[in-house]
Amino acid sequence: MSQDSAMIHNRAMIVNNLAMLVKNKCNVSVSLGGKETLLTVLIAINHQDSTIVLDYGSSEYLNKKLGNIKNPHFNTVFNGIQVSFHVDHVRKSKYKGSDCFMIDIPHQLYWYNRREYYRVDCPTLDGAYIEIVLNQPDEEAKLDKKEAYKLALGKIEQKLLADIQTHIADEKLAWQRAYAKMGPTSKAKANIARQQFEEELDAHPAHPSTKLANVIRFNLVNVSMSGCQLINIDPEFSYYLPVGAFHRERSLHLPHINIDVSFKVITVHSMVGSVLDPNPNANEFEDHIGIEFLDLHESTEGAILRYVQDIERQSGLLDSL
Prior knowledge:
By secondary structure, the chain is α+β, with helices and mostly antiparallel strands. It has helices spanning 3-6, 11-23, 60-67, 143-180, 184-203, 298-315; strands at residues 7-8, 27-31, 37-46, 51-55, 73-78, 81-86, 91-95, 98-104, 109-112, 120-121, 129-133, 215-223, 227-232, 246-254, 257-270, 287-294.
């Protein structure tokens, strides 16, 4: 990773990352010149006042020396991530009645977080996915493109219908469980209501949404700041994610936000044993597609970073610090 790509300038991301260091009570070192170094701790951050509170050291000699340093440089390692920043100066202050150091929130933050290779597995229940909207080929399109589009639409409709049937089955099972707990009078009323409901369902059966008729969703297996891995279990969709394919402004759905990303397909690996079912089955299809994000905006990068950090918190990767 280059120095430039590891340097964060977005204030929201700087505050977010420093807040994580504060939460984990990270030790930071600051050089005082020569071989002298002062070790302190990030105690609190106030984004409204744009200040950070640091622990006041036990050595008054080193404390005074730090106060006289111009442009002090702070360094730490957090979960294997190299972090450094500098500020104009350090001043003595009070925090909850005790002596402390106070610094301004830095304008930039070096955050070397192994973006090129460090990935976290996406929780299955999160349901993070990338959505690709298919455009109908024009009349002059090649035959293979028209055929791929036709096959994909057919598979999308099949999956949407299957989702509807699953929803109906789940609803019926929930009703049966509730019915089993009812008394005789309530059961009689429930039977009448259920009959009316099923008659209405037969008269007006559910149909797939037309808005989803040309939409493919690929679930995320893992994610990093540089890209992610998608899973494809339908050969009908393989045409749209070959190695080298570019996609612009596709919707990436994360648990709490939807963002647009552009990407390039870097690798496609056919899996013998499925992630969903490790026992190999010759009739099963599963491709893992490695993609690289392109030209991420700062806000998009920040959303992905927060998602990665959320996964780390949930999995306990940050608790060991």
